[in-house]
């Protein structure tokens, strides 16, 4: 029954770094590598909407950050064009709907922390023209736009450039992503936002006191904008005790977000990254700077998108009603994208 429900629902994954792995191949392999390695996993997992973050590794920063950003954006276009029978890179809600109606996976481009743009907010319309529809402005550390959650002790809010970036994104119809943003920065965004904001991959801080997670006040704040909080699957963000890190713990975070923010404001942001890191990280570079979080750890059965039906099974077992599960799996994100994606102010 849960399998039928899973495949009947629109399933949206708002954070999978697969573009890093595809882009690491020679350009002539981008489309075929995606088709061979990732498309089967997305199909098996029933993914209908896939957000593709552009994450620029430290080795490209600062001088090569813009070049790598553009390379990854081009990679997304090439893999979409080379697999046009199966996927579509979508620029607005109508294109998402059209892709789903045609049985194709709707791909949505995102920027993660925007190091390629830095404080050059005037380039946001440029990347918008290239297809970017979601963006965050910080990662773990400090950027020209804001402090990431790893810098929470500074109490840093958005810089002047960060405030300008939020305004430009709202004007363009580009969704602002608060995941990774520091606590003071999230508060600042929620003070200023006039359109819905998105947390692409954040869990509940009330259940796991980690700076990468969102507090109940932040959850309510995102919901108040009309936005959606998509729960991260990283084991280290779900529980401090390794023995407690399983799909049931993930469902507890989903249930908490639903209870605090409302059932209309929760989704899935798995952050499947182990396979990507194995593909792109040199053997010499074991310390990726994430402290106590093991970035190679995964929940049992959820190492990649093929395991997503397990989440539906666990939601059923937890007692969620079918209509609630449909919202969690992707209905809420689909609604948000349909209303806001690419819609200028």
UniProtKB/TrEMBL annotation:
It comes from the Bacteria. The keyword Chaperone does not apply. GO terms for biological process: proteolysis. Keywords: Dipeptidase, Hydrolase, Protease. The keyword Hydrolase applies. Signal peptide: none annotated. One of its GO terms (molecular function) is metallodipeptidase activity. Its EC number is 3.4.13.19. Pfam families: Peptidase_M19. PANTHER family: DIPEPTIDASE, MICROSOMAL DIPEPTIDASE. This is Membrane dipeptidase. It comes from Streptosporangium becharense. The lineage of its organism: Bacteria, Bacillati, Actinomycetota, Actinomycetes, Streptosporangiales.
